[in-house]
Amino acid sequence: MTKDALKAVLPWVLGLWLAGVTVAGLLWAPAAAGFHGDSFRIVFFHVPQAWVAVLAFCVNLVASIRYLRTRAPLDDARAAAAARLGMLFAILATVTGSIFAKLEWGMFWNWDPRETSIVILLLIYAAYFALRQAVVDEERRASLAAAFAIFAFVTMPFLIFVIPRVYSSLHPNLVEATQGAVRFKMDPGMRLVLFSALAGFTGLFAWLYSFEVRLARVLAARHSREEA
Amino acid sequence: MMRRSSLLAESLAIVCKELASELRQRVALSAIGLFAITTLIAVAYQIGPYSLAENDRPFLLSALLWIILFFASMAGLARVFVKEEDAHTAKTLRLAARPHAVLLGKLVFNLLLLLALEVVVVPLYCGLMGLRIEGVLGLVLVMLAGGATLSISATFVAALIARASGSNTLFPILALPLLLPLLVAAIAGTRAAVGSPELGAVLPALRAISSLGGVTMVTALLLFPVVWRD
Fold first, then answer.
1. Cβ atoms B188, A163 nearer than 8 A
2. How many CB atoms lie within 10 A of CB B219?
3. Which residues contact B142 (CB under 8 A, 6 or more apart)?
4. What interface predicted TM-score (ipTM) does this complex get?
5. How many domains is chain B partitioned into structurally?
6. Backbone dihedral region of A171: left (phi > 0), alpha (psi from -120 to 50 degrees) or beta?
7. One-character DSSP codes across B42-109
8. Between β-strands A181-184 and A175-178, what pairing exists: parallel, antiparallel or unpaired?
9. Do A151 and B164 touch (CB under 8 A)?
């Protein structure tokens, strides 16, 4: 199979994969104990969305570091694309998390440490775009945005890993670490669907990201043609 | 050795320049001080020492104290860099001192400003709100560590917004999400100091604040030359 044919087939494979994950998550996955009704099924969408929001933040970091080393405008476009997608998935994770919170805890919002973490991540993304919008000069915008993205990234471990674990949280933990061993607190069937969903959403992010980068390439080429 | 002492000398020169400039004009000092006092009066007038339930007092009063300190600092800490852009002196400063000396000098100045604010506001707040502190030493450590970490992030963001737009408008927007983890830990530390005379009670918060401060300091030192020169 040629590279072009593979590129044409992959989105269809991704679509079928995500459709399969949706059906499996809603209909096939065994019920989890300790939850109200079928509320646990949102985990197959909420966790991958939160994962992609954090993954996009990491891609944004890598592209920002690359930009500061290469000064290539495409790396800045990559960083901005990752941030745009990260913000989208962070919003989706917030919405699905709120629905779960309403079903499980009776309120859409409880200022649980995990909820607070995702809101701060959203605020960081919003601040990143506010900074980009404030700078007219393209080169300065790219370098300042890269510096902010890297600086913001170092605070992320405190948001995502430290605060939710230091302060008591209602949020269910999917993994349990006891005496150095890490164990998943879920049925093998659930685990299979969850990992499939994680792979599917990661693929969706990669597909959308490649779209954004291709678009940035086209715009850059048109811009240079207009200047010539 | 020569280079290290020179960096220190440049940083100290910038601290002295900032202090002389601030004592002459008192813009940042007035903005931060008046903002803090106005907010403090509003909070004390509305809540006062008696309207909160005894169980809620340590948490709510600790949170309110840090909210006052945080927003007061937002009113003036950005000025260290914004004023250089306003007065068109940034280019001269770039020629006169290396980037790290500029960052360290401005950071120390902002830290002094914050400590001055804390020295005035914290006792006044405790007096007006009837807040009894069990662990004074713990509170002092939380205030010192919190002030230092706050000034590191605030100084770096001040440099960013001065280069981005040359105005204060973006400052709270960029600083707030970066400083929220600090606020969470500082509020927890203050609450622990209010309720317990044991130094051990504030140690978890102190550890979180110090590690955040260390990480942001190293990152700021690495990134500042990019922000300052580009």
1. no
2. 20
3. B186, B189, B190, B193, B202, B205, B206, B209
4. 0.86
5. 1
6. beta
7. HHHHHTTTTSS-TTTHHHHHHHHHHHHHHHHHHHHTTHHHHHHHHTT-HHHHHHHS-HHHHHHHHHHH
8. antiparallel
9. no
- Check B216 against A154: CB less than 8 A apart: yes
* Interchain contact A146–B (C-beta under 8 A): yes
Please report residues of B whose CB lies closer than 8 A to that of A127.
173-174, 176-178
d(CA B64, CA B183): 11
Q: Are A51 and A204 in contact (CB under 8 A)?
A: no
CA distances for B47 relative to A127, A171, B25, B36, angstroms: 32, 32, 34, 16
- Quote the Cα angle for A189-A193-A199, to 5°: 145
Measured between alpha carbons, how far is residue A74 from residues A65, A77, A81, A138, B132 in Å?
13, 5, 10, 12, 57
The shortest CB-CB distance from B170 to any of A121, A130, A162 is to: A130
Residues paired with A182 in a beta bridge: A177
Q: Are B119 and B186 in contact (CB under 8 A)?
A: no
**Alpha carbon distance B113, B28 (integer Å):** 8
What does the alpha-carbon distance between residue A113 and residue B215 come to, in Å, rounded to a whole number? 21
**C-beta of residue A14 within 8 angstroms of C-beta of residue A204:** yes
Quick check: B166 contacting A, CB < 8 Å? no
User: Over the stretch B187-222, which tens digit does the pLDDT of each residue have?
Assistant: 999 999 988 888 888 898 899 899 999 999 999 999
- Among B118, B122, B138, smallest CA distance to B203 is for B138
Domain boundaries, chain A: 3-227
Q: Each residue of A24-55: pLDDT tens digit?
A: 888 887 777 667 777 778 888 898 999 999 89
Q: Which tokens belong to A102?
A: 């309403």
Under 8 Å between Cβ of B107 and B147? no
Nearest chain B CA: its distance from A76 CA (Å): 15
pTM: 0.85
Q: Which residue segment(s) compose the domain that B177 sits in?
A: 2-229
